[in-house]
Amino acid sequence: MKLSLSLCLLVAFSEGALAEDLPKGTARVDFFGYKDCVKLENETTRVVLCHQAGGRVLDYSLNGTNVIYLDPEAAGASGKSGRGMTGGRFDIGPEQIVPRRNLLWSGKWTAEITGPYSARMTSQYDIATGVRLIRDFKLSPDSSALEVTQTIHNQSNEEKQWCHWSRTFAVGKGIVLIPLTGQSKYPNSYVMYEGSNLIQMRPVDEQIKIRDGYLEIKGAPKFPKLGMDTTAGWFTYLAPNDLLFTKQFEADPNRVYNEVAGLTMSIWYPDRPMVELEPIGPRETLAPGKKASFTEHWTLQKYPFPATGTPVDLKSIEKLVTPIFNNTGQ
């Protein structure tokens, strides 16, 4: 049965009104097998958030090119294990202490649009850790700059000591550049996790070297999990799809970092199509009812991936990323 013209106009008007009622730079979309995701978008940059399973970033793209790695076999995945749920992930640690938290990692979250170019995802209360997590996202109206803040809210009746642990899966096989500052407590400025029970304090690997004040990771090392204690407060990743993905965050040398090796950041670089980029926050001692937040500033820029055997021009990278610090006040 055909709809009457007046009814068609009413439906069209209602859908248009709903779209117009949303704040500027926001929308609800279906993406990667998930319905009703929140989208933040400006002229060049798109961010898609998945609240249906784990409170993740599914898309962080510049001019249509996504830097986030998504396992193609896990579209629309959900479940207690969270296996295969890649994307722009976040977590809490320390890794060796925090209990299993499947409700936070792969459970259902809520999502709300909080203003122009802004959204929030909120987890369920997780009895295992005693916390609820809140993740706020704010995209610049006119650039790729994305502010990401995770808040840990202790809703238990006892003190908790957790830390922020970012676990962003990016498109793999790229080059990680980490500025080194001060004197590292590690002889070679990084540690290498050899399995789950051994940390090598003096690793040597042909894929990792120090060059002109940077720790450079050019490919998959012998063991994929690496840790650093630099307090530069930023690092950048040059992806093979010609995107330079920079993360800036606070790294305070006067705070306690409660990962086993006192890490301020970690890189997981397996011989697979993804790499994990992991700023780590300091220990937060939270009395019942208290909250602590950690903010990351993300940016994307176009940058040609070098040909095999050609070193990255570190000076040109510095020229690109230095203005980011001025814009964020650090």
Structure, described:
With 330 residues, the chain is mainly beta. Helices cover 11% and strands 41% of the residues. A hairpin with a 6-residue loop joins strand 9 and strand 10.
Secondary-structure map with pairings?
Layout: H1 5-21, E1 26-31, E2 34-41, E3 45-50, E4 56-62, E5 65-66, E6 88-93, H2 102-106, E7 110-115, E8 118-122, E9 131-139, E10 146-154, E11 160-171, E12 175-179, E13 191-193, E14 199-200, E15 208-211, E16 214-217, E17 225-228, E18 234-239, E19 243-249, E20 265-268, E21 274-279, E22 284-286, E23 291-302, H3 314-328
Antiparallel strand pairs: 1-2, 2-3, 3-4, 4-5, 6-11, 7-8, 8-9, 9-10, 10-23, 11-21, 11-22, 12-16, 12-18, 13-14, 13-17, 15-16, 17-20, 18-19, 19-23, 20-21
What is the typical, i.e. mean, pLDDT? 92
Note the run of SSEs as H and E: HEEEEEEHEEEEEEEEEEEEEEEEEH
Whole-number total of structural domains: 1
The CATH topology assignment is Beta-galactosidase, Chain A, domain 5
Q: Give a short account of the largest sheet.
A: 10 strands, antiparallel
* Main sheet strand line-up: 7-8-9-10-23-19-18-12-16-15
CATH class: Mainly Beta
Instruction: Output the structural class.
Output: mainly beta
Counting DSSP E segments of at least 2 residues, the number of strands comes to 23
Q: How many H/I helices?
A: 3
Q: Report the β-strand fraction as a percent range.
A: 35-45%
Shape: globular
Ends apart, CA distance between termini: 62 Å
- The name of the CATH architecture is Distorted Sandwich
Binned, the helix content reads 10-25%
Rg on CA atoms, Å: 21 Å
> Unreliable runs, pLDDT <50, ≥5 residues?
1-17
